[in-house]
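Checklist before submission:
- one chain only
- standard amino acids only
- sequence pasted in full

Submission:
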Amino acid sequence: MTKDVIPGSKNKSCAQQQIIVSDLVKKTLAAYEVPESLEAIVSILSKYASSGTRLFSEFNYTRCQDKVKGYQLVVGGLASSGIYVHFDYDYGCDDLGGH
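Returned file contents:
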């Protein structure tokens, strides 16, 4: 997982974010991909448990590949109350982390 959202991905639709990831892969030849929700949850929690470091700020999330009732899941926002897992209406209000 990236430590923070991918630059330029904030407030973009899911389709626009997929293009950003694809372009990033082409430019860097890195193996970026949108994570599955379980991968995102495990990565965020294990990083925090092992080092006390948060991968995303309390108000940033990563859109995931998984869908529930046609809506993409978003994960992140690790706070004292826990990790945020919800579905996204694709209004362009969520960010994109990668791994």
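Reviewer check: The chain is about 30% helix and 25% strand.
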